[in-house]
Amino acid sequence: QAQLVESGGGLVQAGGSLRLSCAASGRAFTIYPMGWFRQAPGKEREFVAAINWSGSNTVYVDSVKGRFTISRDNAKNTVYLQMNSLKPEDTAVYYCAARRGSWSVTIGTVSTYDYWGQGTQVTVSS
Questions:
Q1: Average pLDDT of the residues of the chain
Q2: Residue with more model confidence, 27 or 120
Q3: 49 phi/psi in degrees, rounded to 5
C-alpha cells in the first residue's frame, strides 16, 4: 500500500516558480502511474498532470502546458511537479495521487486513483 506525502508548496509572486515533491512509501510505487491534481476554494478537484511508471509518458491539462513539468525518480520513490511562470489562477491545494494499476485512458479522472496525499497549499500573488 502506498502512502503519499507532498511538500514544496508556499507563497510566490506571479511569474515565479515552485517545485512540489511527493514522497511515496511502499515498493509498489515504482510501477504505479502518478498524478497531480489541484483544488481551489469552492471548486472541484482538477487534474493537472500525470506520468507513467517509467516516466516515458506524460499528460497535462491545457492550462499548464509549457509551464509545468511532471517527473519522477523511482530510486527515491518521489514524483515532482516543477511549476514555472505561475499565475494567480494556479492558486490551490495541490494533491499527489497514485493509481494501483496500469496507465488508463481515464488517467485525468479523480476516480482513477487509489491513493492520495494530504495536499500542499500553493498561493500565487498578483
A1: 95
A2: 120
A3: -160, 160
Half-sphere exposure of 27 (CA within 13 A, CB side): 0
CB 79 within 8 A of CB 24: yes
Residue 48: which H helix or E strand, with range? Answer: strand 46-51
What percent of the chain shows pLDDT beyond 90?
A: 90
| Tens of pLDDT, residues 42-90 | 999 999 999 999 999 999 999 999 999 999 999 999 999 999 999 999 9
2 pLDDT more than 80: no
Q: Cβ contacts of residue 18 below 8 Å, gap of 6+?
A: 8, 9, 10, 12, 83, 86, 122
Three cell numbers written together for 123? 498561493
Q: Residue 117 class from Cβ within 10 Å (0-12 exposed, 13-18 middle, 19+ buried)?
A: buried
Pull the grid cell for residue 11: 507563497
- Residue (of 93, 92, 94) closest to 81 by Cα position: 94
Q: Is 75 helix (H, G, I), strand (E, B) or coil?
A: coil
